[in-house]
Structure of MSLNL protein:
Amino acid sequence: SEVPAGTCREFYARASLGNLDLLPRGSSRRTGLLRGARSCLGVRSSRLDPQQLGSLGALVCDMEPETIPASDPGILENLKLCPALTGAQRDALNALLLMGGTEYGDPSNWDLRTLQNLGPLVLELNRTTLSLVAEAARKDFIRSIAAAYRNQGHSQREKSLILLQAFAAASASSSSHARLKRSTDGCLSKPITASTIADSILFLDYNLTQFDLCLSNDVFIKNLEALLAQPFTSEYLQVMKKKVDQLFPEGIPEEQLKRLGELSRLYTEAEISQWAVTSNSTLSALLNSSGGKWEDSQVQQLLSRYLSLGGTLTGPLLQQIGGKRLCNLQEEQIPAEAIRTAGQLDISPCSQTKKEQLYRKAQVAFAGLANTPRVYYCRIQPYLGGAPAKDLKDLANAGEAIDMDIPTFLSLNPEELQKLSVMDVKNLLGKNLLGLKEAENEPLVMGWVQRQFQRELDCVLGIGLEGGMEEPTGTTSPAHPTTPASVTPTATVPVPTTLPTVPTPVAITSHPTTQSSAVPHKTPTPSALSPT
């Protein structure tokens, strides 16, 4: 509603280049964006002309299916920007392509280059469209996908498999393929050897039955890595799993477990509970992401088996486990030494209780850095979401600026953050203090601001935060030495002229000494820098 009419075309052209999925599909903000673009560009019907398409970009992805055949054929370039099409949009796309009026021509005339030029739209082709493509072109395309498969990451491999399955289904009516499929008497094709594996795309050249019959167990196990570098559907992988079980009826040797790759993901929790996972190298090989995704229950069983056989988790293993699976580990299963060597771990998915457990482990792990607060902070920073207010105060007053970044500040335990004073926060953030103003609408910051006196926010921080409490009539906020944020972004940490000695505890009297708040005070060596 705030976009001026004179610049709306530029605005929507730029907006259409962004990641629209940051706004949920169907949300009022996303539909409002499309509605504003239609109005600005003068879209009055389902037909979009080339100029409108050029300005709409990925916004076309949210339009009605009938827009696809009604618009200029250039709409195909817009559709390439869509992460996925709805079923109705997919049908409309295929109907448009079948008419042959686009730059790609009639599907019966497509070749390898045409299929490649379709880009992501090739994922949206249905069986009817694919069946019209010449078999030679389909095979050339499958071979090009398979050739790239070896060097792809897991997510890209999943897309490649979808393509291969679709193209293989379109070729299923091939007479030679059908004849092989009907026979189960033996290998009717060329027996699979090491050279066959190197030179062929087995998924394309052998149907499921012939793959099983033509691949001997001996050739299979000797060439396992080369086989797993080829694209296969889950049905083919199940055939290979069966061969593993036939070869090792008494249990898979540990050296063979390391070689399983994506086959390992086919095993049940009960089967995993029998594995001989005794070394961290075996566990690391099994957890390698190149083998695909594990189910949480499978990983839990795998870790339980490893630990029950005397294994110990290391830092690199914690990195591989990562995320919410790390949160599922018991406190006693995570050695402090593993935390020390793990590098940056993401504990944001963990419960508050688990964050506190991991923080205590990190305290022990990095205790040797207690005399260098800034270095200590850098190492313990990922775990500060579990830190109590006392330790955060000690960090704030350690005598050396740590310059906590805003994302870390926002990850602190909300209950503990509310216990921090204005000066504590200033000292924690240091040169990043101005970032607090940018985060003022975050619930965590708003809650903290509402518990502080507004005069103190103004005098100590001086960055324009509003929403603090008004002071009761007749009271005066204590003065604090401040450096206005507008003058320098670096917060100063009060340091005394002489270091105070640690006081000996005494009984509380009825006349406690009151220290002047105007005198800068330095906390003794912070307990947060030593394990409790």
User: Anything to note?
Assistant: The CA atoms of residues 12 and 37 lie 6 Å apart. The chain is about 50% helix and 0% strand. The chain has a mean pLDDT of 85. Residues 154-170 form the longest helix (17 residues).
